[in-house]
Amino acid sequence: MALFYALSFLSGFFETGSLMMGLTSLFTRAAAPEATQVVTSTIIRALACALCYQIGNLVPRPLELPKSVVIASGLLGAFCFTFVLLPLPPATVLAASLLGTVSVSACIQSARSVMKSGAPKMLKRGARIAGFALGFFCTPNLIMAATVLTVLFAFIVLRRVPAIKARFILPRVNGLNIVMVFHQMHYFVYCYAALIVAFERGGKAAAIFAFLLSWIVYLLSPLLYRKVKDLRKVFFFGHSLLVLILTGLYLAPSLPLKIVLYLLTGIGGTTEFCIGGLGKNWGIYNEDAQNFSENLGHALGVASCLILFIICGDLKISSLFAAVFVLAAIACMAKMAVAINKEDL
């Protein structure tokens, strides 16, 4: 159990740490941040690092790796991050950091996936939030130390489990899994953008405060719905509220109001639990398909954020696209609910 929490902590660390390394220009030794071109390239670099972390999360679903390859992936990450410590050309250091982030992420998720943890979801997420917090202080030395610990913990975990074959497992998804893809896309298209904006306008302290407080709101918000038995009502209410909040986040004229709305997104976003709950109630829940849908949504969401910024040069528009993805999730869920009701007649 302790190793599961440790790996969850490291997972959170690398998620925010990779982004912060890009933002603080430690990977590429960028020039002074006041130049517009440098700011743009820094944001693109940071989002690319975040995307690489999420791509690594596609292991072990849909790509499952043998134990030896998982350890080799972690070692490759350690090798790549040694370039961060050296006075090399920025392009070389950036390429190594991106590959290192993918490799270490794959190692962490593979090791976590073979551990069956009965720990409460609150504790699991608490470990990740603690990792998020440390990630904001990421440095080349710290990310190297975290990588070494990742390889060590992965080795300890994997030596206890039977041999694993290399497999590409593409689960058969249903409409409910598509709902999950859009739900995850809505969060990851704007969450890193919001963190970057907070970092730009208020520094590291503002970014830490906004990001961590938003997660605390997300964790506590299920208490608002505990007395409502109909998960469909909870889902549609929470996601409809999300559309209004995200649209307001885009239109809000002042930074304080944007911060308040950003924190309130957790009240609607937390209704994600309804997706799995309804799948179980309807007898169509599949854990592999659910995990694959989550991982795919993460990667597609960050990729969407990166593409939007490259095209528009504006991070604020990501919240508007987040609202569009929520509307898509609502539409897919409505279609599923109608189909299930017809089957019950």
List the keywords.
single chain; 345 residues; mainly alpha; two-stranded antiparallel sheet; 2 strands; 75% helix; 1% strand; globular
Write a structural description.
- The chain is mostly helical and 345 residues long.
- Helices cover 75% and strands 1% of the residues.
- The chain has 13 helices and two strands.
- It has helices at 2-23, 36-56, 67-82, 90-113, 121-135, 140-158, 175-188, 191-220, 231-251, 255-269, 273-281, 287-312, 317-344, and strands at 63-64, 167-168.
- Strands 1-2 form a two-stranded antiparallel sheet.
- Helix 9 packs antiparallel against helix 10 (255-269).
- Residues 26-33 have low confidence and may be disordered.
Strand arrangement, major sheet: 1-2
Shape by Cα distribution: globular
Q: Terminal Cα separation, in Å?
A: 45 Å
Taking all Cα atoms into account, the compactness measure Rg is 20 Å
How many distinct beta strands? 2
Strand content is under 5%
Mean pLDDT: 90
Uncertain spans, ≥5 residues at pLDDT below 50?
26-33
User: H/E series, N to C?
Assistant: HHEHHHHEHHHHHHH
Q: What's the story with the biggest beta sheet?
A: 2 strands, antiparallel
Residue share in helix: over 70%
Instruction: State the helix count.
Output: 13
> Helix- and strand-based class?
mainly alpha
